[in-house]
Each structure stands twice: as structure tokens, then as C-alpha cells.
Amino acid sequence: MNLDQLRSFVEVARLGNFTRASEKLHLAQPSLSRQIAALEQDLGAELFQRARGGSTLTTAGESLLPLARRMLADAESVRRELAELAGLRRGRVRLGATPTLCISLVAEVLSAFRAAHPGIELHLSEQGSRRLLDELAGGELDLALITTSDATSAERFIVTPLLVEELVVISSAGAHPVTAGATITLEEVARLPQIVFSSSYDLRSATDAAFRSAGLRPDVALEGAEMDAVLRFVERGLGVAIVPAMVLIDRPGLRSVRLAGPALERTISLARPADVAPTAAVDVMRRTVATSATDFAARAGATMRLSA
Q1: Which of 135, 169, 191, 199 has the greatest number of CB atoms lying within 10 Å of its CB?
Q2: Residue 41 resides in a domain
Q3: In whole angstroms, how far apart are CA 294 and each of 109, 162, 299, 305?
Q4: CB count in 10 Å sphere of residue 299
Q5: pLDDT, tens digit, 9 for 90 and up, residues 92-126
Q6: pTM for the predicted model, two decimal places
């Protein structure tokens, strides 16, 4: 058994198809098939049920998969740790973050980290919080900035809360304010045309739940947009949107107003695997994230605070 065989096995298991896996691995399909066959021979068990429509894991394959992922993650940790012994001149950090954070906090984090450690290779995964936790558990990420927590998997991760921020209502700075007051009620927001996020966004679930709880049905002008598109559409005056206060920093084309009554809030946390010791580069990235979060809280004022 070797790491190349395990890497091939994990990729076929993920994609369910030898052809797609060979393309992803930049490996000829006969070579991939030989690696899997050799692994099956070494283990004395078939790992895949092969069919015309694809390949599925056998019971033995399902047992091997989490072990293979962990072995690959451990091997990668060793490789990176040895590469970083010379003072962070080399190495790699794999960071995951939600789309909202990628256009705000993460941009600051990566800029600061790159300036201090230009030799470290950076990889970014932009996904929803649940998907990021899956990638973290599978050894695909070192750190993840998330906005939700998975209580059933708490023992698998070390989760450190960083920031608590309000969700605010944004509109075009070039249009008339949506309210004359300092705040706006959820009922007033429901009557305004709204730009609504894709259903994959954690923000969409939070705002939908708030409207349902209040017995309100919002006026949806456009549904299914991604974060950058939502901000651009609102800037053009196509409607309003409910977004984290963080995205308003350095965006003069947008105006914001806080919600009246109990604020809609979200907690931003940094998660890492509980059973993998962080490398030197990952630990420096963790500290860079914490410092950047503190700076963001200071710039955002009352709509954002450091988590207790």
C-alpha cells in the first residue's frame, strides 16, 4: 500500500467514476486501474463495485475511505511541517471560508499573510459552512471560517468564535433612503423589493426563518443571486437586501440601515480539526485571522463586536 494508491482510491470514491478520477489526477486510466487493482490485491478485498454507470464502494471500501483520508492528511501534515522548519520559507495553508467572508475579512487576511510570508502557498475553498466542515473533516482543509456550527460533530473540530455581527438592510446610495428613521422594521423590509440569495447560502436560511417567525412574506424581486451579484444589483437600485454589516466596508455605493427590535446576528468562527496538530504556517495563519478580525470589529463600529 502506498500514498499514490490511497490518493487514487479516495478520488474514485469521491467521483464514482474511473474516467473522471483519472482526469482529475492527471493519470492515464489504465494506470489508475492498476493502482486500484494492486491496492485491492494487497488488502485482499474488492473496494469498488464496477458497473457501466459508475463505481460504488463495497463494504470494504466504505471501511477504508475514512482511514485513507486521514492517512493522506497526516502524510500531508508531515510534508508541510518538514518544509516549514526553515522559518516559514516554504509550505502550504489551505483555508476555507464562506462567500460573504471571501469578499471581506478573507481578503484582508490573505493580504496580510502574503506580505509577511510570500513563500507559503495558499489555497482557498469558497463554500457554505456545512460543506467547509465536510472538507475540514476529510483532510482537505487546515482551517475554515464558518458562520454556523455542527453540534453533532463538535468533538471533531476545535471551533473558536471570533466575531458577532449584525445583519443590516442595504440599498443604493444613489436612491432615496428606504426609511427616514435610524432603523427599519422587518415588516417594512418585507414590503420592499428584495434581492435574495441562493438557497445554498446560510444567510438565506437565516433571513427566511426570520420572516416566517414574524408571519411575513417578503416581496422578492430577484432570487438566487451570489453575494457579489447581490451587492451590484442593490447598487444599481434593483432592490434591497439583508446582508452582514461586514460587506459594507469600503463600498460607498451602498447605504445601510439597522433592523429595529431584536437584531439578526451571526457568529463568525474559525474551525480546525481536533485530531491534527497545526503546522507552523497554519498556526501563523490562525493568528493572522484573529488579528484581522479584531481590526474589522474596530472599523465596523456598533454593528460588529468581538465574540466574548
Answers
A1: 169
A2: yes
A3: 11, 8, 9, 8
A4: 11
A5: 899 999 888 888 899 999 999 998 888 888 999 99
A6: 0.66
